[in-house]
Amino acid sequence: MITARADVVGSLLRPPELLEAQTRYAAGGMSAAEFKAVEDRAVDWAIGLQERAGMPVVTDGEMRRESFQSQLVEAVEGFAGHTLDAWLWGEWHGDAAVGDKTTERPTKLGVVGKLRRRRHLSVEEFVYARARTDRVIKVTLPSPSMYANLWSPERSTEAYPTLDLFLEDVAEILREEVEELARLGATYIQLDAPHYPLLLDPKTREFYERRGWDLDRWLSRGIELDNHVIGEHPGVTFAFHLCRGNQGSRWLVSGSYEPLARRVFGDIRAERLMLEYDDERSGGFEPLAHVPEDKVAVLGLVTTKTPRRETPEGLEARIREAANYVPLERLALSPQCGFATSVIGNAVSVEDEERKLRVISETAARVWG
User: Fold this and answer.
1) What pTM was estimated for this model as a whole?
2) Which structural domain range is residue 177 located in?
């Protein structure tokens, strides 16, 4: 089992060279080989940044993705109307620096045919990264029920008469991905599941309930599908990331984990719970009392949304406050979320990003030795 006290969530800011190459490649101005070379350099850079910061766990920065969950529609047939807004719609809240923003849900978005995998989702990411670092590599995958957004009774019922049937196929594709990653030697896999905290807000909960599941079913069937993806893989540690939205330094909902904690923390078969705790939007540490004894709570105390300068002293104080609910030996530290959940990225600099990762590794050494 992965025991790292300093952890990462996933994405890093994309280098300008990569963003430019993505635009050129989409317009036919670069060959596939030229574009892959740019992607590879971006991954090398991302791994190097995390290593310099002293992180024992690294990712490839999600450099090969448009958004953290976009690789499913890129690798699997059956979807139509896909744009970046498929992952950005909603009423986003920001501080005075970035302001609020509302993005409408694309009307033609959705699953319109039976799903068929054209290629693996994340295997390329892992195979490339493992040859370039001796650190633990974390591979991130989306939770299957995140894709409820892509099913609708108007467009999808010919292929999938019910939401359940669609999400069962999504979960099976993700389970096969986990099996292949495990076969190739991956030891740390994370499911990203921000839709569970979104159920805390009445407006977003209403949208998800209109897909056909009420809150109770989201907390039972949804977790059942997550556990199907995780499967049985001795030697592979699983993390489960629960945030409240992260795009362009904005968020979707606020609120304590308390209404979800007992069932989500207790029922998911992941060993590490990646929890957002960077400011008052997340509520207090009291829900940590529901973390089972066989799980680690990874506290996302370092914000990725602003350049705020966290200190080891301040972070240690908060970790010891959380230890009133979960023993110190079952706690770890991470950023609150990724630094660039999509290609848009948050309102921080590369220097901020590296400094924040360094303070995480320094604090972990200070607290746990």
Assistant:
1) 0.95
2) 16-41+58-368
